[in-house]
Design goal:
CATH topology of the largest domain: Creatine Amidinohydrolase
Number of helices: 19
Structural class: alpha+beta
Strand order of the largest sheet: 4-3-2-1-5-6
Shape: globular
Number of strands: 28
Number of domains: 3
């Protein structure tokens, strides 16, 4: 059956980059600019952006989820993080764009070297946050240049046949899934604004818009978002700014008692009106464009740059959402387990390909009759492709799954929850090195799963739990150990995360991933990922309030890749108990053939 929710067509066209860069440079000369910054982000700083906002991919050919290009009149560079160091070299012509590390110092160094004295570096004020503008401003000032907000994005001016903005229908997110009315959520937001002494909040994050008003949309792939804005005053009625074509009569009827409805073109006037007389307006530091800061300040208001209070409210799932995600993971676990049993039968032939495996997994999920979408394009990676953490298979890169390692990272969107799971599978007999590396990753995974920590602990404080066994062998991985996950929203949700940068204290009700890995460039990659729910823990005799994790994801971990002698007794006990729970929970939800395979796949070691 053909895939519905993901495409394997390559959107990368390296040959197009040269004429597009030339056209952009002509437009820069016309606008009096010496360089222009092109971020991956759209106006909402989203991970998934609509086709009409995929400017970085259109210009450079790079399709990763994070990056920035700076195009000068003579030279250009593209800045990416450690997840994409391999991918950027494969997708981008280095003769056009020099690949560099995505770090402030690297951009500052490049600007200092390549921006002429007195030169003007342009930027689109809707596509950069105030923080990122401040970094650019510092770099440009140090280079003796000037930073110029453009009236019209010069890249947009030369983008022929640019796709239209999306207009997917907005749908209600029923209370049986949301667990709290929009009226009650609005009260909580207004109370938070009063406490922060702000007169209003501009919602620039579509996730916050969707959560607050209990709506979902379809403007971007894999995350049910309606792209738009809202203005929430402490006093008076809220305002929502969405393309009216997205709203049918039912949704209008639900939203009108909560907010006045306007189009995107009404946002600027509403912000200016709210900001008059020195009003303090909260702008989300993570998603609000610099243009909003300028609007507030030009109107005489105070731009209060800080966290959108909705982000933390949304991150802490209520009891209905917690039960929903448990149900979603049981359903998804059965589908994934059916896939794993199928893969075990099919992979030995050597005829299976990455695309065929990804399509089969999607088919098993669709057979639940509850699948709304995938939560991201499936990472179906064999051999050296698995060494790229964010590999995306295309018809051009599709590889046969042969002896060695196959990694599959996938997830689903259901009305009651969002899933994300990675399994690393042995095809044939794995090498001793593969078993060693996989077991070290598993030990780190178990360390996170078993962690108990005091309230107030951040993800940064436990990130090293997942790395310690790799470090002992002189190894590491370049991504975070875990990201937050939404409730039928984004599979990558903040502010919670388990990483060196995860400063937000973890709270009961937050969902995160637990996904340490190891990647050997050109050879193989390993990752073991489950989602976990932060829960309160009572420690007999303790005098602190403690937290721990409930593992939500249910599917076997490949025993063929485990070096038993590297595991402690406690780690073996955890793995056996986890597999017993998988077997008992899913055994009755799968067909007889899969159930027989599951018994063997989850046997005690």
């Amino acid at each position: 059956m053909a895939s519905q929710f993901q495409s394997f067509d390559s959107v990368n066209n390296p040959a197009a980059a040269k004429p597009r860069l030339a056209a952009l440079r002509e437009e820069l000369r016309r606008q009096g600019l010496d360089a222009f910054a092109v971020p991956r982000a759209d106006e909402h700083q989203g991970e998934y952006v609509p086709e009409n906002a995929q400017r970085l991919a259109w210009l450079t050919g790079f399709t990763g989820s994070a990056g920035t290009a700076i195009a000068g009149l003579e030279k250009a560079a593209i800045f990416v993080d450690g997840r994409y160091t391999i991918q950027v070299r494969e997708q981008v012509d280095p003769a056009l764009f020099e690949p560099m590390e995505l770090a402030g110092w690297a951009q500052e160094q490049w600007i200092a070297t390549n921006l002429p004295k007195g030169g003007a570096l342009g930027f689109d004020p809707w596509l950069h946050t105030p923080d990122s503008v401040a970094q650019l401003e510092k770099a440009v000032a140090n280079a003796g240049g000037k930073l110029v907000p453009t009236q019209r994005n010069p890249l947009d001016a030369v983008w022929a046949n640019r796709p239209a903005a999306p207009r997917a229908q907005v749908k209600p997110h029923a209370l049986v899934f949301a667990g709290e009315t929009a009226e009650d959520k609005l009260k909580r937001v207004r109370a938070a604004l009063q406490q922060a002494r702000c007169a209003a909040l501009v919602i620039s994050d579509p996730h916050a818009l969707a959560w607050l008003f209990n709506i979902r949309g379809g403007d971007v792939g894999h995350t049910p978002l309606p792209l738009g804005y809202a203005l929430i005053p402490v006093e008076g009625k809220a305002q929502i700014f969405l393309d009216p074509a997205k709203l049918n009569d039912e949704v209008r009827g639900l939203l009108k008692p909560l907010a006045d409805l306007g189009g995107p073109q009404d946002l600027e006037l509403a912000v200016v009106k709210q900001a008059k007389d020195g009003a303090r307006i909260r702008l989300d530091s993570a998603t609000a464009g610099f243009a909003l800061k300028r609007l507030v300040e030009q109107a005489g208001g105070i731009a209060d740059i800080g966290p959108d209070p909705i982000a933390l409210m949304k991150a802490v799932k209520n009891p209905v959402e917690r039960e929903g995600t448990r149900a979603a993971h049981r359903r998804d676990g059965a589908a994934v387990t059916r896939f794993l049993a199928w893969f075990n039968r099919e992979a030995a032939s050597g005829k299976l390909t990455e695309i065929a495996a990804a399509e089969a997994l999607e088919d098993f999920r669709r057979e639940t009759n509850a699948l709304a979408d995938l939560s991201f394009p499936t990472i179906s990676a064999a051999g050296p492709n698995a060494a790229m953490p964010h590999y995306r298979v295309t018809r051009q890169s599709d590889r046969r799954i042969e002896h060695g390692i196959y990694l599959v990272d996938s997830g689903a969107q259901y009305n009651d929850g969002t899933t994300d799971i990675t399994r690393t599978l042995a095809v044939g007999t794995p090498s001793a090195e593969m078993r060693d590396r996989n077991t070290r990753v598993l030990k780190g995974h178990i360390a996170i799963a078993r962690a108990v920590f005091p309230k107030g602990t951040s993800g940064a404080q436990i990130d090293a739990f997942a790395r310690q066994y790799l470090w002992q062998a002189g190894l590491d991985f370049d991504h975070g150990t875990g990201h937050g996950v939404g409730s039928y929203l984004s599979v990558h949700e903040g502010p919670q995360r388990i990483s060196k940068l995860g400063t937000t204290p973890l709270q009961a009700g937050m969902i995160l991933s637990n996904e340490p890995g190891y990647y050997k460039e050109g050879a193989y990659g390993i990752r073991i990922e489950n989602l976990v729910l932060v829960e309160e823990r009572e420690i007999p005799g303790g005098d602190r309030q403690m937290l721990g994790f409930e593992t939500l994801t249910l599917a076997p971990i490949d025993l063929a890749l485990i070096e038993r002698n590297l595991l402690s007794q406690e780690e073996v006990a955890w793995l056996n108990a986890y597999h017993a729970r998988v077997r008992e929970t899913l055994g009755g939800q799968v067909d007889a053939e899969t159930a027989g395979w599951l018994e063997q796949a989850t046997r005690a070691i």
